[in-house]
Amino acid sequence: MLYQDSLITITANEIVFKHYYFPFGREKRVALADIVRVTVKPPTLLNGKWRLHGTGNFKTWFPRDTRRYQRDRIFFAELKDRWVHIGFTAEDGALVEKLLRARMLIGET
User: Fold this and answer.
1) Bond before 23 cis per omega within 30 degrees
2) pTM of full prediction above 0.85
3) Which residues of 29-53 are buried (b: 16+ CB within 10 A; e: fewer)?
4) What is the domain partition of the chain in residue ranges?
5) Residues of the chain below pLDDT 70
6) Among residues 5, 80, 82, 96, which one has the fewest Cβ atoms lying within 10 Å of its Cβ?
7) What one-character-per-residue DSSP string does 45-63 give?
């Protein structure tokens, strides 16, 4: 295990998004090999700062995070062969960004 908090777990092979599915909060597992890129953005009203769970635009799905408005960055994972992206946060955003950069998953849009 490379990173774990109450929102996500990152291993050498996958990211586990906790509290992903509504309404029961089951987790979603995504292989790192299935991620095209992850972009990192500052939290704003338009990119999900106040999104507690779900989607506002039918393009990006956010796992539940009742403290997203307090996070310093929001990650957006673009998946292979998937129309919907995953918007997620982490308790230690700087460390998660460093881990994803080391695996060459961070990209610009």
Assistant:
1) yes
2) yes
3) ebebeebeebbbeebeeeebbebeb
4) 32-102
5) 109
6) 80
7) TTTTTT--SB-SSSSEEB-
